[in-house]
Amino acid sequence: MAADKFEVLSCMRHCSQLLSSLPMTTDSALLYLDHPCSILKADEVRPLTDAAKEFLANKYNDFAKLVIPI
Q1: pLDDT in the model for residue 38
Q2: Which of 20, 30, 67, 69 has the most CB atoms within 10 Å of its CB?
Q3: Residue 62: exposed, middle, or buried by beta-carbon count in 10 A (0-12, 13-18, 19+)?
Q4: How far is 68 from 70, CA to CA, in rounded Å?
Q5: For residue 2, what are the contacts with CB-CB under 8 A and spacing of at least 6?
Q6: Is the pTM of this model over 0.85?
Q7: From the DSSP assignment, how many helices (H) and strands (E) are in the chain?
């Protein structure tokens, strides 16, 4: 958030890459998506937020298949 506040795009990109290399959890995915709009729209962190969205979609899609057979 500090990198976003001071518009240090290279730091935002680096932090995003580091966070992307960590195992994704529901909590971390929700934290990545719960940032102010200026961060979510930045191209530097878009891969991280996209990965968080995909993780949650896959997790709850798998859950829905277990609960409601199609």
Answers
A1: 60
A2: 20
A3: exposed
A4: 6
A5: 8
A6: no
A7: 5, 0
